[in-house]
Design goal:
Blueprint: H1 2-14, H2 19-43, H3 47-55, E1 59-60, H4 63-68, H5 72-75, H6 83-104, H7 106-130, E2 142-143, H8 147-160, E3 165-168, E4 172-175, H9 176-189, H10 196-217, H11 224-249, H12 253-266, H13 273-284
Antiparallel strand pairs: 1-2, 3-4
Helix pairs in contact: 2-3, 2-6, 6-7, 6-8, 7-8, 7-10, 8-9, 8-10, 9-10, 12-13
Length: 286
């Protein structure tokens, strides 16, 4: 059963221009992995080690702590501990992400999610360190979750197609500009609550989602740097893979001799297509 699941994940992952599915898969894989590690370490009496580990992946409000774990500006928005947290984030990401994907493409969706996560995180740290009201929370505050990136996608889709309609259960048809506005207002109303950091990050994500689409409509793609960065590493990985394949495809003299022996015994027609290809490639090197 595990093999079937792994194969399904590989097929989904390897599809072309599938940023939406990849983002969701990364979040789910991280969620499952983190929770497995938590269970194992907890029953082994190492829960304090797990807490130390997970804190290194969460985004701190303290600038001093952040300097020691700068990767957390990325890792935090792929990290969830609660099932309901990841469930609603991924549902909203899929529903609104499809609008972005279907209308302006894969790269725009990836840019919105990553920019939302980064800007939302920076917004959270900035507000906590600038406004005195949050001063007593800075040293202990840590944040996780994809919500800032999701808010960027939600507001981005509402900015792009404000009159696109969702048919909500028990409510009926609602244009997405009102859904986006409703959730932005909810976050704003709770910036003084217990989840103030998360709500502030939502607002930062919503802000960059709006700016991204408006700039794109003016012919400016502020997410181009992110896509170029991702493509750079994808190209390096592709080159390494091609080198590895070429190395494996090299035909040794022993293999050529075996193929020639097979021809002398059973004729050329007995060769497999792979053997014919290897023989042809070897002949070009002569």
């Amino acid at each position: 059963m595990a093999n079937f699941i792994i194969e399904d994940i590989k097929k989904a992952w390897n599809k072309r221009d599938n940023g939406l599915i990849k983002i969701i898969l990364i979040n789910i894989i991280v969620f499952v992995s983190i929770n497995i590690v938590q269970v194992i370490l907890t029953i082994s009496g190492l829960s304090s080690f797990f807490t130390l580990f997970i804190n290194k992946l969460m985004l701190p409000a303290s600038l001093g702590t952040f300097i020691l774990q700068p990767w957390s500006i990325i890792t935090y928005f792929f990290l969830h501990m609660s099932f309901m947290h990841i469930l609603w984030n991924m549902l909203f990401l899929y529903w609104f992400g499809k609008i972005i994907y279907d209308n302006i493409g894969n790269n725009a969706l990836i840019s919105l999610y990553v920019l939302g996560g980064i800007i939302g995180g920076l917004f959270y740290m900035a507000i906590y360190n600038i406004i005195p009201y949050y001063a007593d929370r800075v040293s202990e505050s840590l944040m996780l979750g994809a919500s800032a990136g999701v808010f960027s996608v939600v507001v981005g889709s509402a900015t792009l197609m404000p009159n696109y309609t969702f048919h909500l259960l028990l409510i009926g048809p609602v244009r997405i500009k009102y859904i986006a506005l409703f959730y932005v207002l909810l976050s704003f109303f709770d910036v003084a609550g217990t989840n103030a950091g998360g709500e502030i990050a939502h607002l930062g994500g919503a802000f960059i989602g709006y700016i991204f689409i408006r700039q794109l409509q003016n012919g400016i793609n502020i997410g181009e740097g992110i896509i170029n960065f991702i493509n750079f590493f994808n190209e390096k990985k592709k080159v390494k893979k091609e080198k590895f394949q070429n190395k494996n495809d090299e035909t040794t003299q022993d293999e050529v001799d075996k193929i020639l022996d097979k021809i002398s015994e059973s004729g050329y027609s007995s060769l497999t297509s792979k053997e014919k290809e290897r023989l042809f490639n070897a002949s070009k090197k002569q």
